Amino acid sequence: MELNFAVLVNGFVCKNANMVSADDFLFRGLDNPRNANNMLGSVVTPVNVMQLAGLNTLGISMARIDFAPYGLNPPHTHPRATEILVVLEGSLYVGFITTGNQLFYKTLEKGDVFVFPKALVHFQQNVGKGNAVALAALSSQNPGTQQIARSLFGATGPVDPSVLAKAFDIDSNLVKLLQAKFAASG
Amino acid sequence: MELNFAVLVNGFVCKNANMVSADDFLFRGLDNPRNANNMLGSVVTPVNVMQLAGLNTLGISMARIDFAPYGLNPPHTHPRATEILVVLEGSLYVGFITTGNQLFYKTLEKGDVFVFPKALVHFQQNVGKGNAVALAALSSQNPGTQQIARSLFGATGPVDPSVLAKAFDIDSNLVKLLQAKFAASG
Amino acid sequence: MELNFAVLVNGFVCKNANMVSADDFLFRGLDNPRNANNMLGSVVTPVNVMQLAGLNTLGISMARIDFAPYGLNPPHTHPRATEILVVLEGSLYVGFITTGNQLFYKTLEKGDVFVFPKALVHFQQNVGKGNAVALAALSSQNPGTQQIARSLFGATGPVDPSVLAKAFDIDSNLVKLLQAKFAASG
Amino acid sequence: MELNFAVLVNGFVCKNANMVSADDFLFRGLDNPRNANNMLGSVVTPVNVMQLAGLNTLGISMARIDFAPYGLNPPHTHPRATEILVVLEGSLYVGFITTGNQLFYKTLEKGDVFVFPKALVHFQQNVGKGNAVALAALSSQNPGTQQIARSLFGATGPVDPSVLAKAFDIDSNLVKLLQAKFAASG
Amino acid sequence: MELNFAVLVNGFVCKNANMVSADDFLFRGLDNPRNANNMLGSVVTPVNVMQLAGLNTLGISMARIDFAPYGLNPPHTHPRATEILVVLEGSLYVGFITTGNQLFYKTLEKGDVFVFPKALVHFQQNVGKGNAVALAALSSQNPGTQQIARSLFGATGPVDPSVLAKAFDIDSNLVKLLQAKFAASG
Amino acid sequence: MELNFAVLVNGFVCKNANMVSADDFLFRGLDNPRNANNMLGSVVTPVNVMQLAGLNTLGISMARIDFAPYGLNPPHTHPRATEILVVLEGSLYVGFITTGNQLFYKTLEKGDVFVFPKALVHFQQNVGKGNAVALAALSSQNPGTQQIARSLFGATGPVDPSVLAKAFDIDSNLVKLLQAKFAASG
Question: How many CB atoms lie within 10 A of CB A135?
Answer without folding.
Answer: 22
